[in-house]
Design brief:
The protein is built from eight helices and no strands. Helices cover 79% and strands 0% of the residues. The protein is elongated, with a radius of gyration of 21 Å. The protein starts with a helix and ends with a helix. The chain has a single domain, classed as MetI-like fold (Orthogonal Bundle), CATH 1.10.3720. By secondary structure, the protein is an all-alpha fold.
Length: 219
Amino acid sequence: MDNWLTPVLMYLARGTSITLWISFLSLTFATIVGLHVGSLSVSRYKIVAGFVRVYVELFRGIPSLLILLYVFFALPHIGIETSPTMASMLGLGLWGSANIAEVARGAISSISRHQTVAGRALGMNAFQTLVFVVLPQALRRFLPPYVGQLTVLIQASALTSVVGVTDLLGSAKQMIERLAYSGSSSHAVEIYMLVLIIFFVICYPLTLLAEFLERRMRV
């Protein structure tokens, strides 16, 4: 084994853990916000539904990289100091929440209105009908595309290196620069190939899971 490979693998392993951690934080934030926003998007109040529509279209219509950069550079101007990791979580989380909200809206809207009428006929209010009648059925249609969004969010986490996060891609860049500075070959092709393999190993099982859930939960 070449003497450059072992330190590169160790550094990439550390970068991979950071990528997974940021993905987890972003997904948690995006899921909490996205589910609430998605539920409000089917509100009978037009003002609420309109506000939610603006939120979803705004963050879905802007590239995730621009949202990430704006959050990273804008927060200090309003007195909020944050680390690159937290800025990445907020930026990717906002972008992801809009996509998850749209998935949730589609899942809820796909449930027949007869189910809502049946719930109200049983004496439930609008909130109870949503929670106990509509959402359990919508969950089957929500999960497959939700897992797909998780894959997209992990892939988008590669953008965090732009704001100084030493994630998987950032670690690869640093090792290439160090090897080139040492006077030997940078091994850029080999290192980026390792990054490609790591991302594939992480994301491909999630893609298979999404396909499995889609087949299993088809109604």
